[in-house]
Amino acid sequence: MNRAVPRVRLVVPTTGRRPYYIRQCLDSIRRQSQPVEIVIVGPTAAASLLESLAMRYRCRFVAERATGLSNAVNQGWEGADADYLGWLGDDDLLAQGAVAVAIEELDRNAAAAMVYGRVRVIDAESNHIYTIRPGRLASWFIKYGQNFVWQPGSLYRRAALGKAGLLDPSLHYAMDYDLHLRLRQQGSLSYVPRLLASYRRHPEALTALNPDPYAERLIVMRRYLGPVARSLEGCWWPAAKYTCRAWGYAQILTGRREKPAPAS
């Protein structure tokens, strides 16, 4: 394994309530072929567990100063001098070789503000449900409220983040969507047709707790629409919503038939 100075910092925000998942998450990062600087950010109430995990996985634990996922990730990114930054939910997994693939793409494409790829959806027991293959069109759909640029496995250029700004703590569910739209203003969103991560679907997952998946996303979308698109939203939004929803269903149906690749 390459032991060079890490070019990537990944933040793992956690409440400390799912130690089994956290260990799987950290295992998937430590198995990468490229070195990664890991920063665990969590509550002081879970400090004993998280400090022991930090020692075991040779990383750093930082007690959160404020609650919320966005605050935790922003805090974990503070002072970073790595070329590339990202975060991974404590219940998600990186695919084998994901960091190397992401670094290679960002090194190759200097105009890219971030890289994203395919994401496998798994259940609470890590069984494959389906695979999302967003493709290059996802970076166009995202402008119109359709978020197929999934955060797990994505990696951001630190310089682009410095210009776009960090996560918005006022958002509870669409903070990644908002960030990706701002990064889109700084450069391209580069797609690699490779499995980069697994997203775990379970009752306590953030998206499962969202009562209205479109509500906050619409608020964010309207921040970045031009005046013409904003004035005509009532005309194009229903068509965009249902067209992209159909595309999403097709992704799920074909993704269920796809042979699962190793997630970590």
UniProtKB/TrEMBL annotation:
<feature type="domain" description="Glycosyltransferase 2-like">
    <location>
        <begin position="11"/>
        <end position="161"/>
    </location>
</feature>
<dbReference type="InterPro" id="IPR029044">
    <property type="entry name" value="Nucleotide-diphossugar_trans"/>
</dbReference>
<dbReference type="GO" id="GO:0016757">
    <property type="term" value="F:glycosyltransferase activity"/>
</dbReference>
<keyword id="KW-0808">Transferase</keyword>
<protein>
    <submittedName>
        <fullName>Glycosyltransferase</fullName>
        <ecNumber>2.4.-.-</ecNumber>
    </submittedName>
</protein>
<dbReference type="InterPro" id="IPR001173">
    <property type="entry name" value="Glyco_trans_2-like"/>
</dbReference>
<keyword id="KW-0328">Glycosyltransferase</keyword>
<dbReference type="Pfam" id="PF00535">
    <property type="entry name" value="Glycos_transf_2"/>
</dbReference>
